[in-house]
User: Fold this.
Amino acid sequence: MEFAKQLKKLRTDKGLSQEDIAQKIHVTRQAVSRWEAGSSVPDLEAAVQLAAFFDVSLDWLVLDKQPADNVTNQDILNAVNELRDDIDDLSNDIDDLSNDIDDLDDGGVGFSDNRKSFGSFLEDNWFLIIVMCVLVYMGFHGGISSWNGKFF
Assistant:
């Protein structure tokens, strides 16, 4: 079992005893010994505590599986900032389009009096339009499903 090998390697690389690990995650030394021998496995809470203690991913600890991408918090922050910039650009484009439509309405080309102007529609629904633009953008760039497991 990969978990047993991983746990023992992490513990010995840090020069810790089984007792040290047991105290850190509030289990018995015998439990740690059984985990390293492969005769039992920790419950989910203990496995998460071990991964956090050794600062490794749970995938690596349990399955010896490296994440597909080594995404850092800075990568996430950069992606969020890029999306904000794209939303700002889309918002500016919508404002420009709304102004152009208002100019057309002022020029006598427009909607009848009993209907809202397209510019008013854009002004009233700008948030919905931005959300739709972001969703379309994400659809062309792999969507949220392409981010699955990369950030957390």
Notes: The two ends are 24 Å apart (CA to CA). The CA atoms of residues 34 and 40 lie 6 Å apart. The chain has a mean pLDDT of 78. DSSP finds eight helices and no strands in the chain.
